[in-house]
Request: fold
Amino acid sequence: MADKNSWSVYLSGEIHTDWREQIEDSVAAAGLPVTFFSPITDHEASDDCGVAILGAEPNKFWHDHKGAQMNSIRTRTLINKADIVVVRFGEKYKQWNAAFDAGYAAALGKPTIIMHQDEHAHALKEVDAAALAVTKSPQQVADILRYVIHGELAGYTDAVRAAE
Reply:
């Protein structure tokens, strides 16, 4: 961690919904000392950054390769910097890059929180097995962050404890 009062969280994964904003809003509302980082979420910029900066490529493989390498500079740097890595797998698209990010974070020993719906449980079983938490919602991620940072269980009442 950069300082004992601040946590850095890298938000990896699908870019087509507002899950990042939901986590950031919940964490801000809870007053948690968290700084968030993420990949470039502008899909076109992410796809075309390599050729836009380094020059055109007539072959789509090399076009994508240049972009992937440039995006990897950001991804590797920010995952290395993160205290926690959150990886979301969305419902609509296959996020191979998210699986790579989860594996990279695990290889570095970074605590990971994985987020996906039940229909992806089988396909992501190895990713889930390496994670320290597997969630279904941005609110669950925010609640985990509240707990690990402040030891607070949001919504955990005496009635719930009595029922256990």
Observations:
- The domain at 7-39+82-163 is CATH 3.40.50.450 (Rossmann fold).
- The helical segments are 19-29, 43-54, 60-81, 96-107, 125-130, 138-150, 158-163.
- The CA atoms of residues 85 and 112 lie 5 Å apart.
